[in-house]
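Our platform keeps sequence and structure together, in a single record for each protein. Such a record has a labelled line for the sequence and another for the backbone structure tokens. This encoding replaces a full spatial description with a residue-level series of whole-number codes. Below, we set out a record of this kind in full and without editing:
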Amino acid sequence: MPLAHLGQPFLKASDCISIDDAPDVGCQKVDVSEVEVNIEKLAHNTEKVDPSCFDLLYVIGQGSFGKVFLVRKNNGNDKGTLYAMKVLKKAVLKVRDRLRTKLERDILTRIKHPYIVDLHYAFQTEGKVYLILEFLRGGDLFSRLSKEYMFTEDDVKFYLAEIALALNYLHSHGIVYRDLKPENVLLNEDGHVRLTDFGLSKESIFESAGDRTYSFCGTVEYMAPEVVSRHGHGTAADWWSFGVLMYELLTGMLPFHSESRKDTMQMILKAKLSMPQFLSPSAQSLLRALFKRTPSNRLGKKKDVSELPVTSLRDIGWLAFSLQGLAPLSLTLLSYPGMGPAVAFEGVEPEIYNCTIFITQ
């Protein structure tokens, strides 16, 4: 089984190469010196809140710009509800990071989907910016993958089904996600996915109108060739990243990875895909369709696959699944003292699961 082009397993975002240029509008650069963040507007709630409305419980994440806390709401209709509170210090935020924060707020305020994280509140003080997100006790796909090495095809089908529905929803609203990777796929306590981190996303990109964006951003190992080459990209770039994620979940490896950014980029542009032979023929077929270097030939772009039947699981139909009848996967939940017991999963919501996956052209 030739695996010459496979990289090391379980590369966290900090081990991969993450990069972005200045924010863009089409191919025009924004004058970032004049940009300021204003996120006083609330998301899906109308209640006026401030930091005193939340009791800090634990630090559950930390970065160079701030921390993520597990908090409990102490008043209002949602009193007692647990949230993840992202607190960003304005003093250490670069202009592009302020733009990312505002973009994430804007996107999460206007979209609502069962497989995308919910933003409940957004506000700021003189020195800090606050995003109050739903708290997801299942952790992320990277953590689960690092423990299990790789998933079965049935497991991967379950995750990819929900991710595909989320991507299709974003694309239908003119949003290119541009940051699909295991660390950004969170899991709730029932094992269902939530896409998170929309700071690198791009709005107002519609394939039907031929819209393109030209910024070079994301984690290099997950970038599509047209992003690497800066020839302009649209929603098809997300389906390449979808293929990278699928490959990684099935094999525990990245399809294109080297120690240097330059070599990784060259592999994405030119290297032959090493296909592990333990994968089923239908999974291999789907991966080849996703790893088309010409965006117009890639699955998710071609007109003849704009709608996939829910009943077929053969050939390229490996992706064409109905979620009806698929049970969430068991997982170890994040647990902190005082959180209370997790709610056991008892069934599948028919309005979410009895659906067809549409991939827009």
